[in-house]
Amino acid sequence: MKLNTDYTQRVVIDTTAMDWTPSPEAGVERKRLDRDGDEVARATSLVRYAPGSRFAAHTHGGGEEFYVLEGVFEDEHAAYPAGTYVRNPKGSRHIPRSSQGCTILVKLWQFENGDTAQFAIDTSTVEWKPGRVPCQQEILLHQFGDEVVKLIDFAPGCASLFHAHGGGEEVLVLQGVLSDELGDYPAGTWYRVPPGSAHTPFSRAGCRIWFKAGHLPPRTKLPGVA
């Protein structure tokens, strides 16, 4: 399967309008956002576990990164409540499940060589730091090489600075509405823009986003852009 695998193209998806589709495991459903491969694939998906459902034990040959959107995700290592960000590097193994049900944003086979950190961050216990402009706050979730992952809060009426993303940008809007010169992105919107894209994001009423940048090929450094 090839779905949104042209990383030179802008992709915007209203995930709230998508249907859930079954996975190979009973009670586990997903919404595919991008995918290159079949069951073993470079992929970005929303995955929903019904209460009491589980996935078979498996090894992540290309690594796994996920953020818990609702409920509590579990495996044999820990329970991860909503707001938890987890990285399981290449070669890690677990048996995922959820006693009460959960929904997660998950990315597979997208780890850089040498990125071996394995950790979980419960963002409800982490202090927000000042962001790019005074009306923004952020939590740094992960950074390796050019890749950076954050939660970003925009206060009502907040506009960021005009900037470009030399390695692309990917966003899931968690709360509120994010906007830029090209449109409005309400909660549940996932978008991915190619390397070199530039914009001025803002939010009229405030919003919170999951943000990832610097991870898309080619990793072009733009002159004068951090």
Q: Descriptors for this entry?
A:
226 residues, mainly beta, disordered C terminus, nine-stranded antiparallel beta sheet, eight-stranded antiparallel beta sheet, 55% strand, 25 strands
Please give the structural blueprint:
Blueprint lengths: L1 E2 L7 E4 L6 E2 L5 E10 L3 E9 L3 E2 L3 E3 L3 E11 L4 E3 L2 E5 L3 E3 L2 E2 L3 E7 L10 E4 L6 E2 L5 E9 L2 E8 L3 E2 L3 E3 L3 E12 L2 E4 L2 E5 L3 E3 L2 E2 L3 E7 L13
Antiparallel strand pairs: 1-4, 2-22, 3-4, 4-5, 5-13, 6-12, 7-11, 8-9, 8-10, 8-13, 10-14, 15-16, 16-17, 17-25, 18-24, 19-23, 20-21, 20-22, 20-25
**What's the order of the H and E elements?**
EEEEEEEEEEEEEEEEEEEEEEEEE
In percent, how much strand structure appears in the residues? over 45%
Helix content: under 10%
Count of distinct strands: 25
H/I helix tally: 0
Most strands sheet: 9 strands, antiparallel
Radius of gyration: 17 Å
Mean pLDDT: 93
Low-confidence stretches: 219-226
Tell me what you see in this structure.
This protein is mainly β. It has strands spanning 2-3, 11-14, 21-22, 28-37, 41-49, 53-54, 58-60, 64-74, 79-81, 84-88, 92-94, 97-98, 102-108, 119-122, 129-130, 136-144, 147-154, 158-159, 163-165, 169-180, 183-186, 189-193, 197-199, 202-203, 207-213. The protein contains no helices and 25 strands. The strands form 6 sheets. Strands 1, 3, 4, 5, 8, 9, 10, 13 and 14 form a 9-stranded antiparallel sheet that branches. Strands 2, 15, 16, 17, 20, 21, 22 and 25 form an 8-stranded antiparallel sheet that branches. The chain has a two-stranded antiparallel sheet with strand order 6-12.
